[in-house]
Design a protein that fits this description.
- By secondary structure, this protein is α+β, with helices and mostly antiparallel strands.
- 26% of the residues lie in helices and 27% in strands.
- It has helices spanning 15-25, 44-49, 115-134, 159-162, 170-183, 187-191, 224-229, and strands spanning 2-7, 29-33, 53-59, 62-69, 75-78, 91-96, 99-105, 140-146, 184-186, 218-223, 232-236, 250-254.
- It is globular and about 45 Å long.
Length: 257
């Protein structure tokens, strides 16, 4: 089973990238973040024509998450409570038999001194509670998406210079580690140990992709037994080279499900 994640930074602006990627790679599940579209304007038709069901939770111009799947999910939950958008359209979960996929767009945090950063930490703590309340570490559970967090020095191009940034901050690392400690493992790192492998290259940095000026802030984590059984994980840089790309690119992993 192939599961992938992609921060589109506007799904309607990125269909020319997403639809060919689906056709080429045929993932069983693709999770998308920053769809930036209200539900009544979501481009479900083209996704359906590509052979995928679409579950989504969004709002105009901001945030938004979606799950595309070959098979129709048995259950879809939006928000921490399963039915709301009080978190700013940042979390959606779909169950496929015994497997649950949780797609999140974690708040970025703006600045370490801002209320938005405190909100990011609170949101991550609430997410941990969501996992504790709804799942067991022995479940078949995949958590993925844009975490807006680079967990380790090998996940950023300049660990010393960027230390303290909202996406590479000790408080964020601590919050992320609490979630990992509940029962998750980083699937990409199981299969790829080298530094310099990134999913995000800032638009504002000239030559970021060509010069390896990036961050690994998009992730696929799974409960440990499921992560142990995974057979591969990789970052596809080609979509970041296309015309009018997102500042993120695709991350995929395979599981024997």
């Amino acid at each position: 089973m192939k599961i992938a994640t992609f921060n589109a930074n506007s799904i309607r602006a990125r269909l020319h990238i997403i639809l060919p990627w689906l056709a080429k790679h045929s993932p069983d599940v693709l999770c998308v973040q920053e769809t930036k579209v209200a539900d009544d304007s979501f481009p479900a038709g083209p996704v359906r024509d590509a052979g995928y069901h679409a579950a989504f939770c969004g709002e105009k111009a901001y945030n938004g998450v979606a799950i595309f799947s070959r098979e129709a999910p048995d259950e879809v939950r939006r928000g921490f409570d399963g039915g709301g958008r009080d978190e700013g359209s940042r979390i959606i979960a779909a169950r496929f038999g015994a497997l649950t996929v949780v797609n999140t767009y974690v708040p970025q945090g703006a600045d370490p001194e801002s209320p938005k950063f405190r909100y990011k930490l609170e949101w991550l703590e609430r997410l941990r509670g969501y996992f504790v309340e709804n799942f067991s570490p022995g479940d078949r559970l995949v958590w993925l998406g844009d975490f807006n967090a680079a967990p380790a020095p090998e996940d950023v191009h300049d660990p010393e210079g960027l230390y303290g940034h909202v996406c590479y901050h000790p408080d964020v690392h601590a919050a992320l580690e609490k979630i990992r400690g509940w029962g998750f493992a980083d699937v990409f790192r199981k299969h790829n140990t080298a530094a310099g492998q990134y999913t995000f290259f800032d638009y504002r940095v000239r030559g970021a992709l060509a010069n390896g000026i990036g961050w690994r802030i998009d992730h696929i984590w799974a409960t440990r037994s499921l992560a142990d059984a995974s057979t591969g994980a990789w970052i596809d840089l080609e979509p970041r080279m296309m015309e009018k790309p997102s500042d993120h690119t695709f991350l995929a992993a395979e599981f024997p499900l």
